[in-house]
Structure formats: C-alpha cells, structure tokens
Amino acid sequence: MLLKFITTSLLMGFTFSVFAITPQDLLKIYEAQSSKASPSRGEQFFNAKHGKEWSCSSCHENPPNHDTKHIVTGKVIKPLAPNANPARFTDEIKADKWFKRNCNDVLDRDCTAQEKAEVLSWLMIVK
Amino acid sequence: MVNDCEMSSMKIKKTILIFATLLLTSSGTFAAKMAMPVDVPASYETECASCHMAYPPALLSEQSWKNVMSGLSKHFGTDAGVDAKTQIEITNWLVKNATTRQKYIETAPENRITKTSWFIRKHDEVKPDVWKRVSIKSPANCGACHIDAAKGIFSESKIKIPLK
C-alpha cells in the first residue's frame, strides 16, 4: 500500500514536472519562435475580427477576467486571464490545442507564434 | 393455520409488492438510460463539455454520434478537433451508450439533437421569443430550463423557464 502510494506520488510528480509550465515559460517558447511580443498589439488582435464572424472577445469578452458565456451555446467559460484564473496557460499541449481550435474559428487558419505571443503577453497583464 | 380471509389479504399484499417492484425497476431503467453513465471519460468533459453541456449519450443514436464524431474539425461552425486517440475513446463511449429506444433512434438531421422529430415535438409549445432570451440563447442550452439537465433529468416537473 505504502509502496503503491509512493509510486503514484512519484509518477504524479513526474507528470507534473513534464507538463506544468507557467504563462511566462509559454510566452518565452512563443517568443523564441518569433520575436519579442507587444501586449498592446495582443490586445488589438484579441478584440478585432479577422475576416470571420467572431473575435476572441466574442466568447472571452474584454477584459477576459471574469466568467463569460460561449456566444452560441451559452456555456460558462472560466476567465482566460491568468491573474483571474491561475490554471490558464500552465499546460503547453492544452494551450496549443485551444489556439488551434479558436484561431480556426476566428481567423480560419492557425495563429503564428508571434500572434500567440502577443495575445498571451497582453492576457498576462490583464488584472 | 390461516383462514381464507388472511390468505387473500396476503395475496393482495404480495401482488402490490410485485407491482411496486416492477414499477420501481422500470422507472429506474428509464432514468438510467438518459442519465450520464458513470464511466464518462475525462476527455468528454475537457474536449466536449468545455463549449457546451455534456449531453447524455442516450440523446442520440449510434449512427448520429458516429456522424458527429467524424466531423469535429467543422463542428457547428467551430473547430472542435481532437487527437486520434481521444477521438476513438470518446466515439466508442458515445456509441456504447447511445440510445436503443425506438423513440429516439432516428438519425438526427444535421447531426443536431435539436432537429430530431422527438425534440421538436417535445418543445412545440415553446415560442420563438422564449428561445431568444439572454439566459437561454440556444436550444442546445438544455440546462437553461431543465434545471437538472446535467444529471440527465429532463422530466416535466424539473423545468423552470427563465423570464429573461
């Protein structure tokens, strides 16, 4: 029993260390693939439409620091800004999955590393 | 030694007991079919229920779920794409728990629960302006009126239509 507990704890610790990152880490990853991010450009990008019906703020609102509702289904979406919701941008795979989905919804294409960096750099300073 | 009167009384009690048991069992089965199965994979919550309610699988037929799950990159106007492993996991679970009841078994037009004939019939008294209320927004938002929808309970007694 104790052995099982120790093994599980070790495994969980291992998994945690592999996947857990901070928004700062993620920003560095995106900046390394592009260049230094500008939060003000990120804010503009987040609130603008890009040729399709929705902007990021259609579902996440501006500022995205509170519970919002999905524009179609009404489902509650937790705050996107890390200051309001510390779970955000702490898992690179999850962040990339949602960037892929939501960028397709808003821009009809993948976002560039630069666009991701800028949006994230702005979200990180949203109070 | 029991007399005839006591005998028949016992028989009646026994009959009532049998009927009560049957009734309880059958209503239990009915509720369980619409309820969220206990083995719901975590991926169903993270991949599907982040954008909409976690619909109980018994709301659609096996074929309808297969149709939904084969087109996730274009899912009602959004990209809901998942990786291959997750797609198989969710599809298998939905298919396993899809409805088998004749009433719900039709293949949903446009893959929408809300376009099935039973859904339309059940909601035919709901006026168009009610659907548009801010707190309802969409017929996909079951929980706006069916207060226990998340538990798979859609009975008439558990409906509260919001005024705004």
Describe the structure concisely:
The complex is a heterodimer of chains A (127) and B (164). Chain A is mainly alpha-helical and 127 residues long. Chain A has 6 helices and 2 strands.
The value of Rg of chain B in angstroms is 21 Å
Strand content of chain B: under 5%
Strand order of the largest sheet of chain A: 1-2
Count every beta strand of chain A, where a strand is a DSSP E run of 2 or more residues.
2
Number of helices of chain B: 6
Could you name the CATH homologous superfamily of chain A? Cytochrome c-like domain
- Secondary-structure class of chain B: mainly alpha
Query: What is the approximate shape of chain A?
Result: globular
Distance linking N and C termini of chain B: 69 Å
- Unreliably modeled segments of chain A: none
Task: List the defining traits of the structure above.
heterodimer; A: 127 residues; mainly alpha; Cytochrome Bc1 Complex, Chain D, domain 2; two-stranded antiparallel sheet; 54% helix; B: 164 residues; 0% strand
